[in-house]
Please model this.
Amino acid sequence: SLTVFLPRPATDFGFLAAENAVLVVLFQIPMTTLARNWAPSVAIAIGASLYAVGFLLMAPLGSFLPFFVPVAVITIGEILLQPSVTALVAMRAQAEDRGKAMGLLTLANRSGSAVGPLVGGSLLTYGGPWFLFSGTALVAGAAATGYALLRRPPRSANGAQASLRGQESNAGRP
Model:
């Protein structure tokens, strides 16, 4: 969808892809090191929030040069989100089901890659760029909110919040 919307020839999309690649090479290790001490759901929520901000920044753009900023924001979000999703799936799945869980994660990723261009192209055609990019930002923001809520400890049977590890109770805390 982005190649259709760019106000320059689609061949210039390569500059944005190159920017993404360079940023991944430069920031993958530092960002992963920074996020290592965070719960995966926190890194995912921050990454999804950066996706939302990046796509929201794309909505009003009409020239090529400003696209470098949202692509950088989205790339940093991607660097935080992708490894953390894998870690979260590995942590949440039972040992005997990790292979199935990773397979489902891969299926979900590939399904999005398969369906995304069709949906994005349709939204761009029938709703315009603002609708496409702000709608994508809304979905990413909802995902960020979901992962932020996932970080909150579950409530125990007596209504108190249990700890993240499930070993102690935080009775009296909201």
Remarks:
- The two ends are 44 Å apart (CA to CA).
